[in-house]
Design a protein that fits this description.
Layout (H helix, E strand, L loop, with lengths): L10 H14 L68 H7 L4 H6 L27 H8 L11 H9 L14 E2 L11 H18 L7 E2 L8 H17 L3 H13 L1 H6 L5 E5 L5 E5 L47 E2 L5 E2 L25 H7 L5 H19 L11 H7 L2 H9 L4 H15 L2 H10 L34 H7 L2 H7 L1 H7 L2 H12 L3 H15 L3 H9 L3 H9 L21 H11 L3 H10 L2 H9 L10 H20 L6 H4 L1 H9 L9 H25 L19 H4 L30 H17 L3 H4 L1 H8 L2 H11 L7 H24 L4 H4 L2 H14 L5 H12 L12 H9 L12 H10 L1 H11 L4 H11 L26 H14 L12 H18 L9 H8 L1 H4 L8 H14 L2 H6 L12 H15 L4 H8 L8 H10 L19 H4 L6 H13 L8 H16 L37 H10 L2 H4 L11 H4 L1
Parallel strand pairs: 1-2
Antiparallel strand pairs: 3-4, 5-6
Length: 1267
């Protein structure tokens, strides 16, 4: 037996099986049939069996034989229309032949101009008849004289032929059986439904009564392609049944049929009447199935309406009015063509085109699902309409118009539904209209006009051309394939991204997903080959701008795309062009476009190498000279477009000058720049819009001159400024993230600034104040002698009420960092830095300014934790000059340490460490320079970022590498930066060595580093508590625990012990203790329980019964915290009870926090009971936990109903070995319930209650008073 081929078979295996098959002589399962070529006259063997439904219209001619006679010569072909032609008796056939001669010689030889001067000229008469005359189906049927047979497939031309010869098509055969059509019984049309429903009944009646001679068959129309055969089969089956039935049964069936007469007459749908005629003959009459109530009454001359489908005509009815639905469920949103949401109860007219045959036809508008469906329609108009509507929806969603009316994020829902792939597919459409709509929708998704406007307005600010890349927030993804591999063997991020699908990449980053889907190549094709309309060109350029703002990598891909930038440069930034004939030209090709110049500027901001490629390889230098050499009015462009092109050219030059490039053009265009600068104070634009454009051009010119001056080695003041009411830091609404936020497609959210347009508009005070502080800082830096000359002005500015109020508001502020706020926050951070530098210079020389030294220091501490990536130089300057400056800590020189020590006397008890708080603070102030050196050394790894940031802030343009700032991943320094020395030491020794190293074995300088860290923390907790407010108390406790975990005896060192005691007392103050929430995981840790487990293990190993360490261990065992930590002590680390000797007097936490409320955890009560019974918990070893265990067990016993039986006098003490049956063993499968009786008996038997000093007051439930 032959086997089936397998996928693993090779070609030789298949050939071997073929030979075996041929040798066996078996029959093939498939026969190859060659279809005959009809064009060559080849006949098919089954021509006569061609299916009936595939036959075409056939025109039969009477008298024509079935076979073609073989006559030679052939008879002349007769035309049925020949008799209609007009013939004249004296017509010469030769002249007729000449008249129809179409040869070129005949035509050229008879060119004779007729004289038409005497012929009157008249217009043709107007008529409503079309020319040529339209032949209607109704006209053809009237000519025939009989209506068309239902199901007939004759064309209009066939009906015309039949009308000319009524005898055609009436052939009949005597040998055929009698087939009676519905018309024979008086009907006009037999519907398929009626025939199928009553066919057997009528045939039964015909056969029984026999009103005609012989058997009669009803037409089987509707029974399928073999209707004649099927009808004959049914007839034969009925005949066989009748022959086998007795006459009485036949008459009984006849009476049943007659009894159904009223039902059949009232059954309107079937329209069947049964009447009794002469000789009791039963007749069945069928009437047309069109008399039911239909929305539209079809006429017989209508095409394709011979077979009615009422359910498909329902859509022609009038729609019901929308009704108010009393439901609380959310309804599907519907939009009109402009993207506006349509209320479900709104009744709109149908001529607006918003009604369709969807699931809810009475509701106007289109849902997102329906728009997605229409965007893939086969009709071009529907695809374009759907894409344009989606574009309007995206535009409105970007500005937050749906946030109040719709539930959920519209943009996120669209992206999750696959909008990105839908638009990418639509871009490949061959129809230009659909492709243009797809470009418009993609632009609405990616581009935010408000963001672009704000970035353009921010460009002339100080360091305004630098911007954060619009990258999504980094998401750490765990790759199981890389676990356990060496770093050199792990895949890079680029390799991992290459393995991902387009959907996975687009889900995390929309722009990366589009680049992976080859969007740039398609946009190049559209610009180069399709050459679309002007608005499509602008949309494509804006899309490229948004992609360029994504990252340096995306900008480089735009430059590397073959022929993309060459097309942009040659077509939209030409060196010469023809002036347009209208203000709105029909094509932008060959004309300068300001959006294209802006694209060059944004690309140049990505890096100095990108900028050099644009200037040199792409010919950007020549384009700059061409656009700037002439005035905007001389560029032969529309006025507004000319000003915009000149402005963008100046901005492009300014970006190039910020890298030290293209500065040689300054000499060539010096006269043009000076002329433009002289005319800046008197703008020539009379109207508002043009005036704004000219102001932007003047600002761009000033930025250019500033960058050129920086490159030449000088400094010049720029713009910026702020007041409290315009502060992003002091207004949480402005720094909060936008509602319509897409993590994979970040934006600036500038639409929110429409409520406060002056924040970034031309009238914003931000440029003025920053420019003023920058100027004063430059003047005091050039020469210290100038400080006295500008002292009065500086003091008046720093001590102004608005500035002090603004600084006071900044102290307690906690602005959120996101893409929507970072672009403004970095400018406000620069303003604060310049203001603090000026105040720092004035504090030593002016007593009035020195009064506010603590305010300046608090703002500096807050600013240090706010600074964003790219501002590392500012952080370094703050740490070096302001943060650790003793002059900004006036508390240290005005009795501050003594006041702190006096305040501490109210709180401290016998648990106070040997030295008070005052000497510790005084010693910490004396070590401020060493503390500063400790932190600067710890942050030495940020040196490359500091140097790069310094070059940008000091205007060292030749060393700048890019105007793109580092990726926005949060502030440069963490909010808990004062704890960094402790965390760093724990990472180096505590994790790797398990905390087993002694203090002298730690890395060099570790003890001093920890001491300086604790001293700085003590200063902040005592005098700058607001600086550590962003750090939650649980994080402070976790960081201080590193003192015990990084070494085996570091906490025993005297300075470390004293400082840690002081910080611990600050954590257990009533206010701080109430805010301590151990259920929240500390930043950087999965849970506090894991840290506490490590702390217990370390205490068991190296604590030596230290009181401070013991207090740290006891703190999480308070009753209001999770029982898991108490279970860890009494279960996994029960040995700790032997050395946890903190007495009730040494406990710095109130005992009530451990005993109240009553313990309700039965497993924990069992562990308390076991520890007491087995002697693992004793009062002499662990007094605090002993009291806690006895208190909870006593409260549990007296809370039971059987507690009164314990005190019965009949209970006699007895000596026996008590078996703790309530404790589960390894082999036991169930845990017995612990009862109060078991506890009481166990405590009595072991002598706990006899020797317990609390036994006399158990009934009073007053444990605290008994001690």
């Amino acid at each position: 037996m032959l086997r089936r081929p397998k996928p693993t078979d090779s070609e030789s295996d298949l050939l071997r099986e073929q030979e075996r098959f041929l040798a066996s002589g078996g029959q093939s399962a498939v026969n190859v049939v060659r279809r005959p070529d009809k064009r060559r006259g080849e006949k098919t063997g089954d021509d006569s069996e061609e299916p009936q439904e595939n036959q075409r219209d056939v025109v039969t001619i009477a008298g024509l034989p079935d076979e073609i006679p073989s006559l030679t010569p052939a008879p002349p072909k007769k035309s049925r229309f020949k008799k209609e032609r007009v013939r004249f008796e004296n017509e010469d056939p030769e002249e007729l032949l000449d008249r129809h001669d179409t040869h070129i010689s005949a035509v050229l030889s008879r060119i004779v101009e007729r004289d038409t001067s005497a012929i009157p000229v008249s217009f043709p008469a107007f008529t409503s008849t079309a020319f040529p005359k339209v032949l209607h189906r109704s006209t053809a049927e009237k000519q025939v004289g009989v209506p068309a047979v239902p199901g007939g497939k004759k064309s209009i031309f066939a009906h015309q032929i039949a009308a000319r010869n009524p005898k055609l098509g009436r052939g009949d055969s005597k040998n055929d059986p009698k087939v009676s059509s519905p018309q024979a019984f008086g009907s006009t049309c037999l519907s398929n439904e009626c025939l199928n429903y009553n066919l057997s009944v009528c045939m039964f009646s015909f056969s029984v009564i026999g009103f005609v001679d012989g058997s009669t068959l009803v037409s089987g129309q509707g029974l399928g392609p073999d209707s004649a055969v099927e009808t004959l089969r049914i007839h034969q089956e009925n005949q066989a049944r009748l022959q086998g039935m007795p006459q009485s049964e036949i008459l009984e069936e006849q009476q049943k049929l007659l009894a159904q007469l009223p039902i059949l007459e009232s059954y309107e749908d079937n329209r069947m009447k049964v009447v009794i005629g002469p000789k009791n003959f039963l007749y069945c009459y069928y009437f047309v199935y069109v008399e039911m109530e239909l929305p539209v009454k079809p006429q017989k001359e209508w095409l394709r309406m011979d077979k009615l489908e009422p359910e498909k005509l329902e859509w022609t009815r009038d729609l019901p009015a929308p009704r108010q639905r009393s439901t609380k469920k959310s309804m599907q949103a519907r939009f009109d063509f402009s993207g506006a949401v349509i209320h479900p109860t709104e009744d709109l007219p149908t001529h607006l085109g918003l009604h369709h045959h969807g699931e809810e036809p009475e509701l106007a508008g289109y849902s997102l699902q329906e728009l997605f469906l229409l965007s893939r329609s086969q009709l071009t108009q529907q695809r374009s309409l759907a894409l344009n509507t989606l574009a309007h929806i995206l535009s409105k969603a970007h500005v937050g118009e749906y946030s109040s009316s719709l539930k959920g994020n519209v943009l996120t829902s669209l992206l999750d539904a696959g909008l990105l792939f839908l638009l990418r597919f639509a871009l490949d459409d061959s129809v230009e209209g659909v492709m243009s709509a797809a470009v418009h929708a993609l632009r609405a998704l990616l581009v935010s006009p408000d963001d672009e406007e704000c970035l353009d307005n921010m460009f002339p600010w100080l360091l305004g051309m630098a911007a954060f890349p619009l990258l999504p927030s980094a998401q750490d993804e765990e790759d199981e394939d890389d676990e356990g591999l060496d770093e050199s063997m792990k895949e890079t991020a680029k390799e991992k991204e290459g393995r991902k699908s387009d959907h996975d990449v687009a889900r995390l980053d929309v722009v990366k997903g589009l680049l992976k889907m080859q969007l740039l190549q398609r946009l190049r094709y559209i610009l180069e080959v399709v050459r679309p309309a002007p608005h499509v060109v602008v949309d494509v350029l804006e899309i490229l701008i948004r992609i360029a703002r994504h990252s340096t990598s995306a900008a480089t891909q735009i430059l590397d795309c073959p022929r993309l930038m060459e097309t942009v440069m040659s077509e939209f930034v030409p060196c010469s062009w023809t002036p347009p004939t209208s203000p709105a030209p029909l094509s932008l090709y060959g004309l300068p476009v300001s959006t294209a110049v802006k694209l060059l500027r944004v690309l140049a901001s990505a890096g100095r190498h990108v900028c050099a490629r644009i200037l040199n390889s792409l010919g950007g230098r020549e384009r700059l000279s061409r656009l700037l050499a002439a005035e905007p009015s001389e560029l032969l462009l529309e006025t507004g477009e000319a000003v915009r092109c000149s402005t963008e050219a100046l901005r492009l030059w300014a970006v190039a000058a910020s890298y030290g490039q293209a500065c040689d053009l300054y000499t060539d265009l010096y006269s043009v720049l000076v002329k433009a600068l002289q005319a800046a104070h008197k703008p020539s634009a009379p109207s508002g819009p043009l005036l704004v454009l000219e102001l932007h051009r003047v600002k761009a010119l000033l930025v250019l001159l500033t960058q050129v001056t920086h490159t030449a080695g000088c400094h010049q003041e720029l713009q910026s400024g702020l007041l409290k009411s315009y502060s992003v830091i002091c207004n949480p609404v402005l720094s909060a993230p936008a509602l319509e936020v897409i993590p994979s497609l970040p934006g600036l959210g500038c639409f929110r600034l429409k409520t406060n347009p002056s924040l970034v508009g031309p009238g914003s005070p931000l440029p003025l104040y920053t420019a003023l502080f920058y100027l004063l800082d430059i003047l005091t830096t050039i020469h210290r002698g100038l400080t006295k000359k500008v002292r009065l002005m500086s003091i008046s500015v720093v001590l102004s009420g608005s500035v002090l109020a603004y600084l006071q508001s900044c102290v307690g502020a906690m602005p959120s960092v996101s893409q929507a706020s970072a672009w403004l926050l970095r400018h406000e951070h620069l303003l604060l830095y310049l203001l603090l530098r000026l105040a720092h210079r004035l504090v030593p020389v002016d007593s009035n300014v020195a009064k506010h030294a603590s305010l300046f220091h608090q703002v500096a501490l807050a600013l240090l934790s706010w600074l964003l990536p790219g501002s590392e130089y500012l952080a370094h300057q703050l740490l070096s000059t302001i943060i650790f400056n003793h002059e900004l800590l006036p508390e240290g020189g005005s009795g501050g340490p003594e006041a702190a020590m006096l305040a501490e006397l109210k709180l401290q008890e016998k648990s106070t460490p040997p030295s008070g708080l005052g000497p510790l603070l005084r010693d910490s102030l004396a070590h401020l320079p060493s503390i500063r050196g400790c932190y600067l050394t710890l942050l030495a790894h940020l040196e490359p970022a500091v140097l790069s940031s310094r070059d940008r802030h000091l205007g060292r343009n030749p060393w700048l590498s890019s105007q793109f700032l580092p990726e926005l991943s949060g502030p440069s320094l963490p909010s808990d930066w004062p704890f960094l020395p402790l965390i760093s030491l724990y990472d180096r020794t505590g994790v790797s060595e398990g905390g087993g190293l002694q203090a002298h074995s730690l890395p060099s300088g570790s003890l001093q580093s920890v001491t300086h860290c604790l001293q700085w923390l003590l200063l902040l907790e005592s005098w700058r508590e607001e600086a550590l407010k962003p750090v939650p108390p649980v994080a402070k406790l976790a960081r201080l625990a590193c003192v015990f975990l990084c070494s085996s005896d570091l906490f025993l060192e005297r300075p470390v012990q004293e400082l840690t005691w002081a910080l611990f007392r600050g954590l257990i103050r009533p206010v701080s203790l109430q805010a301590l929430n151990l259920g929240t995981p500390p930043p950087g840790l999965a849970s506090f329980h894991d840290l506490y487990s490590a702390l217990l293990a370390q205490y068991e190993a190296v604590s030596f019964g230290d009181t401070l360490f013991g207090c740290f261990v006891l703190l999480p065992l308070q009753r209001r915290y999770s029982a898991a930590m108490r279970l860890a002590v009494f279960g996994e680390h029960v040995g700790i009870l032997r050395s946890l000797g903190v007495s009730l007097e040494q406990l710095a936490i109130p005992l009530e926090n451990f005993t109240s409320p009553t313990e309700d955890s039965l497993p924990l009560l069992r562990l308390y009971f076991r520890a007491l019974v087995t002697g693992a918990l004793r009062r002499s070893w662990c007094p605090v936990l002993y009291v806690v265990a006895v208190a909870h067990l006593s409260a549990f016993m007296f809370s039971q109903d059987e507690a009164s039986q314990v005190c019965d006098k009949n209970v006699r003490p007895r000596k026996r070995s008590y078996k703790i049956a309530s404790m589960p063993t390894k082999k036991s499968k169930q845990t017995p319930m612990l009862t109060a009786k078991d506890l009481q008996e166990g405590l009595v038997d072991t002598g706990v209650m006899v020797h317990n000093p609390l036994c006399t007051s158990l009934h009073k439930h007053d444990l605290h008073n008994s001690h």
